[in-house]
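Hi R.,

Here's the chain you asked about this morning:
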Amino acid sequence: MKFQFCIVVILFIKIGFTQEPIHFSFWNKQFNPSFSIDEKNFSYISFENKFLLKEWNKKLFGFDKKTKKGRIHCLFAQRGNSNFSSNKASISYAQKMSPKLNLGLSLEYTFFQQSEIKDNPKLLSPNFGVSYKHSKLHSFYSSLYNSGVNYNNNGLPNSLLIFWNYYLNDKSSFSTGCTTEKENLYFAFDFHYFQSERFKFTFGVNSSERPIEFAFSCCYKEMEFLFQNNCHQIIGFSNQIGIAYKW
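And the predicted structure, written out as tokens:
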């Protein structure tokens, strides 16, 4: 009986708390290059429609490959259309510094395309990311990044993200933290539910102009699918879908 109990405890420790919440996975690697450092090689695409306006559609493609000591991630994202668009390309490297600490650094190039303007603004900026697993129950995530292009932007990081995630049990966790962006401070609280190794859910509330967010991901063999939705207080809903292939 004691031997059986030990097996259950070991399995619970090794399997129960290994699930990554969607918010701290590769789907959000553009905000923290240290996310998903233990994943397989993968590539993914996503499409986001903001507030039912096709002019604000966002397309994103990412590719991530393991190296001998870390992993390299490449990303390209575009929001807009042929007349006006905001474009972002980045390359990042992340490495496991210890069993608990992951560090990541990315170099990001952002540029505008406007059909009637020749001298569109461009920006080259570094992003820094940290993931720290204090224990099996507590994890901390932080990143320093640039919020985007404007004419007075010097390219230095101007936004800070800090989050703490706590596992309630092998099926759920919650996270809380804050984000500073453009001199504003936003607080957030998210609940994550892991129905199994295949299905994940996240429901979050925050103090920004998009106070409610829902996300769902599903794995099938080498594929992973994402559906994400958030609601703006005035303009309405934004929907995002994504598909990833892992090998």
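The CA atoms of residues 224 and 244 lie 5 Å apart.

Let me know if you need anything else.
M.
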